[in-house]
Amino acid sequence: MDKISIIKPDDWHVHLRDKDALKTTVPAAMRCFERCIIMPNLLPPVTSADSIKKYRDSILSYKPSDSTWTPLMVMYLTDQTSKKCIKAAYDQGLIFGCKYYPAGATTNSATGVSNPNRLNGVFGVMQELGIILQIHGEVTESSVDIFDREKVFIDRHLTKIKHNFPELKIVLEHVTTKQGVDFVRDSDGYIAATITPQHLLFNRNDMLAGGIRPHLFCLPILKRDLHQNALIKAATSGEKKFFLGTDSAPHARENKENICGCAGCFSHHAAIELYAEAFERAGALHQLEQFASVNGAEFYGLEKNSELISLLRDPWQVPNQIDYRNSSLVPLAAGTTLNWRLEI
Question: Is this structure's pTM higher than 0.90?
Answer without folding.
Answer: yes
